[in-house]
Protein backbone atom coordinates (compact mmCIF):
# COMPACT_ATOMS: atom_id res chain seq x y z
CA UNK A 1 0.00 0.00 0.00
CA UNK A 2 1.28 3.47 -0.86
CA UNK A 3 1.77 5.94 1.97
CA UNK A 4 0.45 9.44 1.30
CA UNK A 5 2.32 12.20 3.14
CA UNK A 6 0.05 14.62 4.98
CA UNK A 7 1.00 18.31 5.31
CA UNK A 8 1.25 17.94 9.10
CA UNK A 9 3.80 15.10 8.75
CA UNK A 10 6.27 17.04 6.59
CA UNK A 11 9.66 17.71 8.19
CA UNK A 12 11.48 20.60 6.52
CA UNK A 13 15.25 20.98 6.41
CA UNK A 14 17.40 23.95 5.37
CA UNK A 15 19.83 23.25 2.52
CA UNK A 16 22.66 25.57 1.47
CA UNK A 17 23.83 25.51 -2.16
CA UNK A 18 27.00 27.38 -3.11
CA UNK A 19 26.80 28.75 -6.66
CA UNK A 20 30.50 29.58 -6.94
CA UNK A 21 31.99 27.64 -9.85
CA UNK A 22 28.77 25.73 -10.67
CA UNK A 23 26.75 25.89 -13.86
CA UNK A 24 23.65 28.05 -13.51
CA UNK A 25 21.09 25.60 -14.90
CA UNK A 26 22.47 22.53 -13.14
CA UNK A 27 22.41 24.36 -9.82
CA UNK A 28 18.81 25.48 -10.31
CA UNK A 29 17.52 22.03 -11.24
CA UNK A 30 19.02 20.78 -7.98
CA UNK A 31 17.36 23.64 -6.10
CA UNK A 32 13.99 22.91 -7.75
CA UNK A 33 14.27 19.25 -6.75
CA UNK A 34 14.85 20.21 -3.10
CA UNK A 35 12.04 22.81 -3.15
CA UNK A 36 9.59 20.30 -4.60
CA UNK A 37 10.61 17.49 -2.22
CA UNK A 38 11.39 14.93 -4.90
CA UNK A 39 14.55 13.86 -3.08
CA UNK A 40 12.49 12.47 -0.18
CA UNK A 41 11.12 8.93 -0.14
CA UNK A 42 7.68 10.18 0.98
CA UNK A 43 7.22 12.56 -1.99
CA UNK A 44 3.58 13.34 -2.70
CA UNK A 45 2.83 15.53 -5.75
CA UNK A 46 -0.16 17.36 -4.25
CA UNK A 47 1.55 18.26 -0.94
CA UNK A 48 4.32 20.80 -0.42
CA UNK A 49 6.87 18.45 1.15
CA UNK A 50 10.02 20.27 0.02
CA UNK A 51 12.80 21.91 2.00
CA UNK A 52 14.04 25.48 2.34
CA UNK A 53 16.90 26.25 -0.06
CA UNK A 54 19.54 28.96 0.46
CA UNK A 55 21.71 29.84 -2.54
CA UNK A 56 24.86 31.81 -1.71
CA UNK A 57 27.43 33.43 -4.04
CA UNK A 58 24.73 33.95 -6.66
CA UNK A 59 26.87 36.31 -8.74
CA UNK A 60 29.71 33.75 -9.06
CA UNK A 61 27.87 31.05 -11.02
CA UNK A 62 29.14 29.98 -14.45
CA UNK A 63 27.09 30.56 -17.59
CA UNK A 64 27.37 28.95 -21.01
CA UNK A 65 26.79 30.74 -24.27
CA UNK A 66 29.09 33.50 -25.47
CA UNK A 67 26.31 35.91 -26.45
CA UNK A 68 23.73 35.04 -23.78
CA UNK A 69 24.20 38.22 -21.73
CA UNK A 70 23.10 40.40 -24.66
CA UNK A 71 20.77 38.08 -26.60
CA UNK A 72 18.57 36.53 -23.88
CA UNK A 73 15.65 38.70 -22.79
CA UNK A 74 13.16 38.38 -19.95
CA UNK A 75 9.75 39.87 -20.73
CA UNK A 76 6.87 40.92 -18.50
CA UNK A 77 3.48 42.31 -19.44
CA UNK A 78 0.88 44.15 -17.38
CA UNK A 79 -2.01 43.34 -19.71
CA UNK A 80 -2.34 46.80 -21.22
CA UNK A 81 -1.57 47.50 -24.86
CA UNK A 82 2.06 48.29 -25.51
CA UNK A 83 3.16 47.55 -21.97
CA UNK A 84 5.71 44.82 -22.67
CA UNK A 85 8.88 45.49 -20.70
CA UNK A 86 12.08 43.59 -21.43
CA UNK A 87 15.28 43.18 -19.45
CA UNK A 88 18.53 41.70 -20.72
CA UNK A 89 20.00 38.68 -19.02
CA UNK A 90 23.29 40.50 -18.40
CA UNK A 91 21.56 43.47 -16.75
CA UNK A 92 19.60 41.19 -14.43
CA UNK A 93 22.77 39.30 -13.52
CA UNK A 94 24.67 42.43 -12.53
CA UNK A 95 21.82 44.40 -10.91
CA UNK A 96 19.41 41.79 -9.47
CA UNK A 97 20.86 38.25 -9.44
CA UNK A 98 18.25 37.20 -6.86
CA UNK A 99 15.44 38.01 -9.31
CA UNK A 100 17.20 36.08 -12.09
CA UNK A 101 17.45 32.96 -9.94
CA UNK A 102 13.80 33.19 -8.83
CA UNK A 103 12.60 33.60 -12.43
CA UNK A 104 14.57 30.57 -13.55
CA UNK A 105 13.43 28.33 -10.68
CA UNK A 106 9.81 29.46 -11.08
CA UNK A 107 9.77 27.90 -14.54
CA UNK A 108 10.79 24.53 -13.07
CA UNK A 109 8.06 24.39 -10.42
CA UNK A 110 4.34 23.63 -10.86
CA UNK A 111 2.26 26.51 -12.24
CA UNK A 112 -0.24 26.37 -9.36
CA UNK A 113 -0.77 27.81 -5.88
CA UNK A 114 1.44 25.01 -4.61
CA UNK A 115 4.28 26.16 -6.87
CA UNK A 116 4.01 29.71 -5.53
CA UNK A 117 4.29 28.39 -1.97
CA UNK A 118 7.35 26.34 -2.94
CA UNK A 119 9.05 29.37 -4.48
CA UNK A 120 8.68 31.29 -1.21
CA UNK A 121 11.09 28.79 0.39
CA UNK A 122 13.93 29.83 -1.96
CA UNK A 123 16.38 32.34 -0.49
CA UNK A 124 19.07 33.79 -2.79
CA UNK A 125 22.04 35.91 -1.67
CA UNK A 126 24.67 37.58 -3.81
CA UNK A 127 27.51 37.14 -1.32
CA UNK A 128 28.66 34.28 0.89
CA UNK A 129 26.80 35.53 4.01
CA UNK A 130 23.14 34.81 4.78
CA UNK A 131 20.91 35.71 7.76
CA UNK A 132 19.66 32.14 8.29
CA UNK A 133 22.50 30.99 10.53
CA UNK A 134 20.10 30.13 13.36
CA UNK A 135 18.66 27.32 11.25
CA UNK A 136 20.96 24.33 11.11
CA UNK A 137 21.51 24.05 7.38
CA UNK A 138 22.85 21.05 5.48
CA UNK A 139 25.22 21.35 2.56
CA UNK A 140 23.74 20.43 -0.82
CA UNK A 141 25.43 18.16 -3.34
UniProtKB/TrEMBL annotation:
What does the UniProt record say this protein does? This protein is one of the early assembly proteins of the 50S ribosomal subunit, although it is not seen to bind rRNA by itself. It is important during the early stages of 50S assembly.
A GO biological process this protein is involved in? translation
Any one Gene Ontology cellular component term annotated for this protein = cytosolic large ribosomal subunit
Molecular function terms, GO-annotated: mRNA binding; structural constituent of ribosome
* Keyword Ribosomal protein found: yes
Q: Which PANTHER family match?
A: LARGE RIBOSOMAL SUBUNIT PROTEIN UL13M, RIBOSOMAL PROTEIN L13
Which HAMAP family does this entry report, sorted A to Z? Ribosomal_uL13 (MF_01366)
Q: Does the keyword Ribonucleoprotein apply?
A: yes
Which Pfam family, just one, is annotated for this protein? Ribosomal_L13
Q: Subunit composition?
A: Part of the 50S ribosomal subunit.
Q: Which domain of life is it from?
A: Bacteria
UniProt protein name? Large ribosomal subunit protein uL13
Protein keywords: Ribonucleoprotein, Ribosomal protein
Instruction: State the family named in the UniProt similarity comment for this chain.
Output: Belongs to the universal ribosomal protein uL13 family.
Amino acid sequence: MTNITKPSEVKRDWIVLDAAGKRFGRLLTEAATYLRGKHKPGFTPNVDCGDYVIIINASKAEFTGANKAEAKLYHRHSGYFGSVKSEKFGDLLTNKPEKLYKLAVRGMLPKTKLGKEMLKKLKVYEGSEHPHTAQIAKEGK
